[in-house]
Amino acid sequence: QKEVEQNSGPLSVPEGAIASLNCTYSDRGSQSFFWYRQYSGKSPELIMSIYSNGDKEDGRFTAQLNKASQYVSLLIRDSQPSDSATYLCAVKEGLTGGGNKLTFGTGTQLKVEL
Amino acid sequence: GAVVSQHPSWVICKSGTSVKIECRSLDFQATTMFWYRQFPKQSLMLMATSNEGSKATYEQGVEKDKFLINHASLTLSTLTVTSAHPEDSSFYICSARNPLAGGLNEQFFGPGTRLTVL
After folding, report:
1. Is A81 helix (H, G, I), strand (E, B) or coil?
2. How far away is chain B from the Cα of A107, in angstroms, using its nearest Cα?
3. Distance, in angstroms, between B83 CA and closest chain A CA?
4. What is the mean pLDDT of residues A70-89?
5. Chain B residues lying within 8 Å of A51, measured CB to CB
6. pLDDT confidence tier of residue A97, bands split at 50, 70 and 90
């Protein structure tokens, strides 16, 4: 059974700090990885996607992937109170296959404090 | 673009009735849509994969006769919860891929439908 593990938190960081969110996955065949942000009562919103080992940066967000360690992380620089949400890690078996489905972690709740 | 809408955004119904939820891709054609369910403080659980013009593929443990999925066009998939009971109360979310978007074929989510069964 494919599993995606996240620390449920809450992870509390002060405003302006770097928030580091981590995710591990069990299926070595996984090839693409996604981070979604979900505000309470809302549906998930795609933040980042990554499929190559290393770092991928987009504005204040950096996704890091290490396939050997089966580990993917999300760094949020200059954290803002509006970043307070639950962050879901999702893993997909293939790269561009239309039928591949996502397996989600349980999410990490982030709280950015003033 | 990749805008996905859902209707209704919330619904309250009596036990034993059926409820239909619509999922539409507004600015692209989606050959595949996905239906998820999310209980409070839990993650998204995939219920089924909806394929245009063919039968949906249900995940293990999901009753296909209770959760009817129809994907009659490239922009619309519907989920019907038949004979709803209080334990079916949940947040139902659909997602779709834009097959022409390239990249990793990311899924884009609709805003969700909150179902409350009394």
Report:
1. helix
2. 7
3. 25
4. 97
5. 104
6. low
* Rounded Cα–Cα distance for residues B57 and B79 (Å): 13
Q: Of A44, A53, A55, A54, which Cα lies nearest the Cα of A105?
A: A44
Q: Residue A24: how many CB atoms within 10 A of its CB? A: 18
Token pair 């899924």: residue:
B107
CA torsion angle B5 B10 B12 B16 (round to 10)? 30
Answer positive or negative: Cα dihedral of B96, B112, A106, A64.
Answer: positive
Q: What is the pLDDT of residue B4?
A: 93
Distance CA B29, CA B76 (A): 9
Cβ contact B104–A44 (<8 Å): no
pLDDT at position A2, please? Answer: 72
List, in order, residues 6 or more apart from B55 with CB less than 8 Å away: none
Cβ-defined contact of A42 to B46 (cutoff 8 Å)? no
Q: Beta partners for B35?
A: B48, B94
Cβ <8 Å between A43 and B110: yes
What does the alpha-carbon distance between residue B31 and residue B75 come to, in Å, rounded to a whole number?
A: 8
Using an 8 Å CB-CB cutoff, list chain A residues near B49: 99, 101
Give the integer Cα–Cα distance in Å for B87 and B7.
21
The position carrying tokens 């990311």 is B106
Three-class SS of residue A83?
helix
Amino acid at B70: N
Per-residue pLDDT of B18-62, as tens digits, reads 999 999 999 888 888 999 999 988 889 999 998 888 889 999 999
Tell whether A2 lies on the interface with B, counting CB pairs under 8 A.
no
